[in-house]
Amino acid sequence: MVRGLYTSASGMLVAQQLADTVANNLANVNTNGFKQTLLEIQSAPTLDVYRLQTDPGPRTGKNALPGVPVAAPVGQLGTGAWVYDTPETFSQGPLQATGNPYDLALGGTNAFFNVQTPQGVRYTRDGQFTVNPNGNLVTMDGNFVLGQNGPIQVQQQQGAVTVGPDGTVSQNGITIDRLALTRFNNIVDLRKQGNNLFVDTGNAQPQATAGATVIQGSLEKSNSNVVRSMVDLIVAERWFDSNSKSVKMQDQATQLAIQDVGTTA
């Protein structure tokens, strides 16, 4: 009975984490450059269940002992599940034209803007940038957008800023810098760090990218699939409910067993 409680409880924990993950995906459906998170669920090892019974048929061999019960297979017993991993899906989100010269989108999936944060260089697909009072190109959180020569700086009153498809930033026909863009050989090893930023866990193998297409005046929207998320939310609710009922039933069975022992004693 105790094993059954743990098995059902593990199912409730998985269902709760699935619901939390899906809710976060839905909450960020309008977040620029957001990449939805998936859950990889792993089943715990199963147990082989046997039943002792008397073998009615003839038995031969060195272990043949007439009248001695034998173990007959009944089936397998599940022992629960756990969340194995929570990878992001890096598929391209839809592009939306804004006309804002500081809004930038990246074509393709394996390229990221480099931004300087207090914790170090981080990576993002959110290209909604602006210019701070010092002329630095920054994210909406104030982090510096990096070029090949460091933080990109423009002269706000010196004409329009243009960004070419290769990331070259120019003003009045004069090249200022080129956006620092990074691709990863093992993109699945990137992890979210909040504020739409990604961090290399140490195995993503970052490399300076060439050939990434920068689209000025557009933003990449979230790649969250609303329909799938709603279905997953219903599934998580049903998982949690069924496992919760199982826990209650096993708890009641345990109470009855304790009462019977007390009565017998």
Structural class, judged by helices and strands? alpha+beta
Rg estimate, integer Å: 29 Å
Number of strands: 21
Largest sheet: 6 strands, antiparallel
Classify the helix fraction into a percent range: 10-25%
Query: Terminal Cα separation, in Å?
Result: 21 Å
- Mean pLDDT, to the nearest integer, reads 87
Strand content: 25-35%
The dominant shape is elongated
Element-level helix/strand string = HEEEEEEEEEEEEEEEEEEEEEH
In the residues, how many domains can be counted? Answer: 3
Q: Helix segment count?
A: 2
Unreliable stretches covering 5 or more consecutive residues? none
Question: How would you characterize the overall build of this protein?
Answer:
- There is one protein chain.
- The protein is α+β, with helices and mostly antiparallel strands.
- The chain folds into three domains: 1-44 and 79-90 and 224-252, no CATH class; 52-77, no CATH class; 95-220, no CATH class.
- It has two helices and 21 strands.
- The strands form eight sheets. Strands 7, 8, 11, 12, 16 and 19 form a six-stranded antiparallel β-sheet that branches. The protein has a three-stranded antiparallel β-sheet with strand order 13-14-15, with no helix packed on it. The protein has a two-stranded antiparallel sheet with strand order 1-4.
- The longest helix is centred in the C-terminal third of the chain and has 39 residues, at 226-264.
